[in-house]
Design brief:
The chain is α+β, with helices and mostly antiparallel strands and 235 residues long. It folds into two domains: 117 residues, no CATH class; 107 residues, no CATH class. The chain is 54% helix and 9% strand. The chain has a four-stranded mixed β-sheet. It is elongated.
Length: 235
């Protein structure tokens, strides 16, 4: 269900999105002022969708390319050091063009440096997935997060999971049960009992992990900085 949540700008995988937002917004407004209202509306509309749900971020990036290129292309061409100005251009215009070029490069370098300073730009840290914990999973009916379930389906095709990111196919009742368990809301234990779940792979710092740690019916089987594995206690 993480794909339906708003974008998390603390995620290193979205640093490029953070950089693209002001550039695309500026290009959209510029196109709007020039009378290209369709470009403006499409970019700002897709930006609104991307900020509301992270699953729309790639769509926004695709939509923003055209207006952004249409805006920056002429500006870069006019401000290039190698541009051949017309006979009517004076020296002051040439110096202004060069100054604009230097300012543009300095601004771009500063933005890039700011993004890199916050952390490495990559596809995200490997530790965001339970890579090590997945190797220590005992057999049993497994409860885990929807995103981690997708990872297990890929890496361990033979293992059955309780819930994954295809949440729209499960129905409202099952989604509600999943949220109850993940947030350790009242009745979370009844949900795990209802579906006969006896193994739990959960984020170490999560409400359900804390609840399982304090439950007499569950015991800690494995733990690392990312994930914790719990099994039902045998009485």
């Amino acid at each position: 269900m993480a794909e339906w949540l708003p974008a998390d700008f603390r995620n290193p995988r979205l640093h490029w999105f953070e950089l693209l937002l002001p550039l695309a917004a500026g290009a959209a407004l510029w196109q709007g002022f020039r009378g290209h209202l369709a470009h403006c509306a499409i970019v700002l509309g897709s930006m609104h969708l991307a900020l509301g749900s992270v699953r729309n971020v790639p769509l926004f990036a695709i939509v923003a390319v055209g207006p952004l290129a249409a805006t920056t292309g002429p500006l870069l061409t006019r401000s290039s050091f190698g541009v051949q100005l017309g006979l009517g251009e004076d020296a002051l215009g040439l110096r202004g063009s060069r100054a604009l070029t230097v300012a543009s490069y300095m601004l771009g370098f500063a933005v890039l440096l700011g993004v890199l300073w916050r952390g490495p730009v990559s596809f995200g840290p490997a530790s965001s997935l339970p890579i090590d914990a997945a190797r220590h999973l005992p057999a049993g009916r497994l409860f885990t997060t929807d995103r981690w379930a997708d990872y297990l389906i890929y890496t361990q095709p033979g293992r059955k999971v309780f819930f994954d990111c295809r949440n729209d196919a499960y129905g409202a009742a099952l989604v509600e049960d999943y949220i109850t368990a993940m947030t350790a809301a009242p009745g979370w234990g009844s949900v795990l009992d209802k579906y006969s779940l006896n193994v739990a792979l959960v984020p170490k710092a999560s409400p359900i992990s804390a609840a399982l740690s304090e439950s007499h019916g569950w015991k800690l089987f494995y733990q690392d900085p990312v994930a914790a594995v719990f099994t039902r206690s045998v009485e």
